[in-house]
Amino acid sequence: MTIWEQWVWGAPQWTNLALLVGGLLALLVLWNYASGGSRSSVHWLAGLLKLLAIVLLAVCLLQPMRSGTRPKPQANLFAIVVDNSESMSLRAAPRSPTRGERVSERVDPDAPWRVRLAQDFDVRTYAFDARLENADALQSLAMNGWASSVAGSLQQLATRLQGRPVAGVLLFSDGNLTDAEVAQTDWSQLGFPVYPVLPAAQERIRDLRIADVSVTQSDFETAPVTVRVAVAADGLAGEEIVVQLSDVQTGEVVQEQTIKQQRGPSGADEYPAVTFRFRPIRTGVRFYQAAAFRAADRESWTSGNAVSEATFKNNVRLVTVDAARGPYRVLYLAGRPNWEFKFLRRALEEDAETELVGLLRIADKEAKFSFRDRDVSSANPLFAGLDDNDEETAQRYDEAVLIRLGVRDADELVRGFPRTAEELFAYHAVILDDIEPEFFSQDQLLLLRRFVAARGGGLLFLGGKEAFAGPRFSQSPLGELSPLYAPRAQRDAAAAGPPATQSYRLELTREGLLQPWVRLRENEQAEADRIATMPTFQTLSPVGTVKPGASLLGVVKLADGSTAPAIVAQRFGKGRSAAIALGDLWRWSMRRDPRPGRGGRSLDQRAPELAADSELRDDPAQAWRQITRWLVNEAPRRVQCRVLSSDDPNEPARLITTVSDEAFEPLENAVVELEITPPTGESYTTIAAADFDAPGQYVTSHWARVPGGYHVIARVRAEDGSDIGTAQTGWTADPAAAEFHRLPANRPWLEEVAQASGGEIIDDDRLDAFVASLPSRKVPVTQTWVYPIWHRPWVMLLAILCLCGEWGLRRWKGMP
């Protein structure tokens, strides 16, 4: 509609009379002023004012009216949405009102803008924290919600009001949302404009917070857990910050560091990240608290009174550490008795979570032929007189003689190396030391491959005379499992091995230095010093090249200056395998001083200061423990429980339990009971439901409302009621971490929502002006209305002003 189409004439029948009267009066005025003596600009201005008054009065005879549209009263909805989360209880300064108090003052029902808004619109009031709810008394909200689902609440509101005429939404929030994933949406499809209300003046908040916490667990024995804490601050330039890591269960401080701001990569001053490395004093699920506070606030931090910051609630973060829990069982198979098993067994005796089971061949099988008579026996004479077994069950000549060490009962490994999946899969790792492929049957070789690829076990090849070499090795599953190729046929001469007098010194590659289970020191220089103290080795198994995808972690230098692989590892299916080509690692455990001029003296005969070096004494044992932990740590158990938790407090934690049978195939129809112990200490039991998309997997969800650590014990029974096993895990709920992740109002995000939806940011001190402008804004339901112009006060006032102005100008200039 054009501007002329908006005008309506109430008395068009007076048109001719208005033109006649107006024209006559205009001619009289023109004649009067034209016959006057003066021709100045003031003279003509006075005449123009009188003509304007005449035209205005003549137009009023036609009763002009203007038509327009305005919101139809009570036909359009207008929503007022208030953030009820805990972040609205913050105050920028100690004596200033909180955000919630400021909002409560603005949304008072008797406020002029709310009275005016209710006259034109159907006003609906809502409040939200974790979800959107109807709220009548907006001015008395508690402002204590544990989440700020700003984006989700706007979408919920759009769903509730879908198909209804919504003129707009006034949003009272700081914009610090906890549902960041939901925020990635197209707000132009919301269906109504959003008008966020914010203070006109920018808040200046003094705050220290933990921006991020990450936990890394490794096989590094002296410090297997690494906690990295990132700190951020507003308004605390140049102040010292104390970062603590403490055990939640015991309350003891594990470590503490003090940091200052440094020049960051972007050129701005920022606090460096803090790294804590430690070894948990107990295995299983442990909860730790990372805390950061000003060094000057140590006393107030201990008492819990925030005197120098907006809040202390974002100064702490909770983390979960699930230290490996055994027992892990390792099967060691050796082709001949050697020193390696002795030192490996001694090292693992110090690891309460690992059990070593030894199967050592002391005599190879021997073919024998004889005519049967009463004086000839097929039993091996090595066992004569040791027991009273009959000939049918006695050890035979054509069977290898094996001894078992560390078995749990008399039936374990009684038939030698396992022949069934149930027997072999009871172990978490297998170590093969100088054993030829011919020792195994084809079924055992395929079973060993399944153990690594399907069961997820670990396999370690140790060097020796019978290791890695020969066409049978390369063509068997052992060659497939090895991360090293066997020597090529044209290199058979070299495969016979280097001269026995040659010595080899082990060196770690760059990739090996980065692997926690390979290195024994925390930094590169200390590791280089340790390597320099290691003895030289005399036995190196001939091997081929490293397989694609395998990691070369250690090498030895040959006489010609070249290098040969010494330590190699790879992933294989669900498991992992590694190879150590050195065949005399036991020399390291003999504790000889390898440095020049020491004459190979034993450690006890060395200088007193070196004899007191306990780290050097423990290096071989520590290395064996770390290698063994690397082999077994990722080997799955029959019952495993894990938690998928989100930083979004609006999402529940998903507890996933995986159950397998003895052959580690998915087990269905199991009963999974989960005992959950919340921070309050009152545990309860729930039943996990089967996940039909993943056989052998059982899932349940848990809403963690109370902040703190949650401990879970999964107990699994088979369909027939027999016990399958248990598993433990845990997670931490920390709603304040997301709620107070940032304290200043998130104006950029609110502006994005407002612009995309067709709204704008409204200063909270101009709500009256905003509501007054709503009738002129676009709304869904309008009505047409016509209002007369001719009897408006300003029309008569304008005509009188024109006539008075004309009279005043004539009197001023003395005109007649």
What are the SSEs and their pairings?
Layout: E1 7-9, H1 15-34, H2 41-60, E2 64-71, E3 77-83, H3 99-106, H4 112-120, E4 122-128, E5 132-134, H5 150-160, E6 166-172, E7 194-198, E8 207-217, E9 225-234, E10 241-247, E11 253-259, E12 262-263, E13 269-270, E14 274-278, E15 284-294, H6 298-303, E16 316-323, E17 328-334, H7 339-348, E18 354-363, E19 401-405, H8 421-424, E20 429-433, H9 442-453, E21 458-462, H10 471-475, H11 477-481, H12 492-495, E22 506-508, H13 510-513, H14 524-533, E23 551-557, E24 563-572, E25 575-580, H15 586-589, H16 608-611, H17 614-632, E26 639-644, E27 653-659, E28 671-677, E29 684-687, E30 689-690, E31 697-702, E32 708-717, E33 723-733, H18 735-739, H19 747-757, E34 762-763, H20 767-773, E35 782-788, H21 793-813
Parallel strand pairs: 3-4, 3-6, 6-7, 7-34, 17-18, 17-20, 20-21, 21-25
Antiparallel strand pairs: 1-2, 2-35, 4-5, 8-9, 9-14, 10-11, 10-15, 12-13, 15-16, 18-19, 22-23, 23-24, 24-25, 26-27, 27-31, 28-29, 28-32, 30-31, 32-33
